[in-house]
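Subject: for your reference before the review

Hello V.,

The reviewers asked for a structural picture of the protein, and I figured it would be easier to keep everything in one thread rather than splitting it across files. Below is the amino acid sequence we used in the manuscript, unchanged from the supplementary table.
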Amino acid sequence: MTQPSILVAGIGNIFLGDDAFGCEVVKRLSERPWPDNVRVVDFGIRGFDLAYALLDGYDVTIFVDATPRGEEPGTLYTIEPEVDEIESIDGQSAMVETHGMNPMKVLSMVKSMGGQFKKILLVGCEPATFGPEEGQMGLSEPVESAVDQAVAVVESLVQKVCDGALSQPV
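And here is what came back from the structure prediction:
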């Protein structure tokens, strides 16, 4: 039986405080050995690179990103976004920025290029700060404290996908 192809994509800007969450989690994940069917990449703010990677048609894509939802900083989320929302983004607003990344815009661009998505998951963390206007390096204490737990969440999701146990929504 062929194992499902999985992309773990870190997203974020290392110059904007807690926005670097996805980058830091993927940095730690990339230090571990992974089977050939799993690709772990820090895309940072490189939306075009992520879009072209998604065109490879992964069975499961796991985004890791700072995700403000109004909870306490450091709160982790595992979300299965509604991919149908991509249909509502018009072509003009789907343009990918060169100095930032909106995953929904990247997904919209991929769809406009003929790409399809089978399953998308987001492991997100509630940020405390994106820093001042001039930028800020480093994660806040609550978000830094959540990184190892997020690594464990991603590893668990990958294992469930490989075991065939992740066919239901999370």
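For the response letter, the relevant points are probably these. The beta strands are 6-11, 38-44, 60-66, 76-79, 120-125. The CA atoms of residues 132 and 141 lie 16 Å apart.

Happy to draft the paragraph if you're swamped.

O.
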